[in-house]
Write a structure and sequence with these properties.
alpha/beta; single chain; 29% helix; 21% strand; 15 helices; 7-stranded parallel sheet; 501 residues
């Protein structure tokens, strides 16, 4: 018997699989989907069996399969098809996709409950459907999710809720009032032994709610009833830093078609692609195209919206105010604080100063690797690179001309906090960015003013703020990444008469 095996190592895209001879003692045991150990380039590596041939005829002398690493197949036929889809759609190497997908098998193994697998094969799936849920109030989508989850549990199926960030997993579970027995949360930071245990639970077909990040689309679903993409507009659903680079939303749609289940996209403001396909549903309704659950975003709704006001900082500078905070914004903040209301200020620059330079020769301190200007942080009094985490102390003299006139320019979030503390002494102000550990919304609720970068947008409940301000907003317009995130996250907030400056 010959087995076609994809080794779980990094190989060129042109190399799809390798053929190995199966020993006689393993012929009655080996199956498609098994993870086996093979010798590849003088190393023993795991590999995935994708096809078996009964014939032993081969032009070449083949290496033999050393052993089966787990008694039952851990990869489903749908996952093998998914490997082909990712390979063709994203022009990725099969071996890299397999390496990312396969779980690491611990030494102490636990077998799968075969009873669940037998039941799952008898269940009848509904046909594929794709729906949109556009909301103004997040409670709307939470109520919808609760109903869908209860319905899927009655049918004994699995529900996948795809979230863009790890921090949203626990937050969403708490909002849906789900218990630990009902939920499996999956993300890249889970220990390998625990991940393997969760892999077996999902493979066994137990009725569970899987709440996870983009890695969860690679799991071995055997009884999938519903897929929900939470915050469908968020760019973090894409894996763009490591191979294989893929969009979890695209794979989720493929999974829904393969498992013949419903796919629901939830967003406060849909992506351009999503909106385009919705507008063209008149000719595609027979193909189960986009069917909006809630079109209140298109109808503008009847809810009261907040007042939006734009303040020109050039006029502020003519009056002698060189701060990022306009006089009107400071007055508005004082008014809200007098009524014991909360304020959120968005400033998408970390640190105290955006760049450091020598006033004598004009030398700008830059990262030696990235060649971008270094930020100065007052918390550790060091220069930081926000791309590669390079750190260095501020030298007493300029390295170019040995001059002592080193100046700090540009205003970061720490600078904004210092200015507020001068204007509003005694006010509890908190800063939320990547340089600090996330402490949860309970601490946020105890503060009067919250300062945040893009890091805070998906973590803070904006319903508790009565004034939201964007500092230096014209700078955001020149950066598509930050602008889309800020606009998308705040577009769905029910302002209820609150003011955005």
């Amino acid at each position: 018997m010959i087995a076609n095996i994809i080794p779980a190592v990094r190989l060129p895209r042109s190399t799809e699989f390798f053929s190995y001879s199966v020993p006689c003692d393993l012929e009655n045991q080996i199956k498609t989907g098994h993870i086996v150990e093979v010798n590849f380039r003088n190393k023993n590596v795991p590999g995935l069996v994708i096809k078996l041939k009964k014939s032993n005829a081969s032009k070449y002398k083949l290496k033999t399969v050393r052993k089966i690493l787990y008694p039952e197949p851990l990869v489903t036929p749908e996952q093998i098809k998914l490997i082909d889809f990712i390979t063709n759609y994203y022009a990725a190497a099969k071996s890299i996709v397999v390496k990312s997908m396969l779980p690491e098998i611990p030494k102490r193994q636990k077998t799968i409950n075969k009873k669940h697998l037998t039941i799952n094969k008898k269940q009848i799936k509904t046909r594929y459907k794709k729906k949109l849920f556009w909301y103004q109030d997040e409670n709307e989508v939470l109520q919808y999710l609760s109903k869908k989850i209860k319905y899927s549990f009655k049918k004994g199926g699995q529900v996948l809720i795809l979230v863009p960030e790890i921090g949203l997993i626990k937050q969403l579970i708490n909002k849906l009032n789900l218990t630990d027995k009902q939920v499996i949360n999956v993300h890249a930071d889970i220990p390998k032994t625990k991940f393997f245990k969760l892999w077996l639970e999902i493979l066994s077909g137990q009725p569970k709610i899987i709440v996870g990040t983009k890695i969860s689309v690679l799991l071995p679903f055997s009884n999938l009833e519903e897929i929900v993409i939470y915050h469908e507009h968020n760019w973090n659903h894409k894996q763009s830093d490591i191979n294989p680079r893929y969009d979890a939303r695209v794979i989720a749609e493929w999974l829904a078609k393969e498992h013949r289940c419903q796919l629901t996209l939830t967003a406060s403001a849909p992506r351009i692609e999503t909106y385009y396909y919705y507008k063209n549903t008149k000719t595609l309704k027979q193909k189960n195209a986009y069917l909006p659950v809630n079109t209140s975003r298109l109808r503008q709704g009847n809810k009261k919206t907040g007042k939006i006001e734009i303040i020109d900082l050039k006029q502020e500078r003519l009056k002698g105010n060189y701060s990022l905070l306009s006089d009107k914004l400071v007055d508005q903040i004082k008014e809200k604080l007098s009524k014991e209301q909360k304020v959120f200020i968005f400033h998408n620059r970390k640190g105290l100063a955006q760049f450091v330079f020598c006033q004598d020769c004009g030398h700008v301190f830059k990262c030696p690797e990235c060649q971008v200007s270094l930020f100065y942080h007052s918390s550790d009094k060091k220069l930081h690179c926000h791309h590669c985490d390079f750190l260095e102390d501020v030298p007493p003299l300029c390295p170019s001309c040995q001059g002592p006139n080193i100046k700090f320019k540009g205003q970061g979030l720490e600078k904004v906090k210092l200015e507020l503390q001068k204007e509003l002494s005694g006010t509890k102000i908190i800063r939320v960015d990547k340089t600090i550990k996330w402490f949860g919304n309970e601490v946020i609720g105890q503060c009067s003013i919250v300062l945040g970068t893009e890091f805070a947008l998906n973590k803070i409940d904006f319903g508790q703020f009565d004034l939201i301000a964007f500092t230096n907003f014209d700078q955001l317009l020149n950066c598509l990444l930050y602008t889309s995130d800020a606009a998308d996250e705040l577009d769905g907030v029910d302002l209820g008469g609150r003011r955005i400056i």
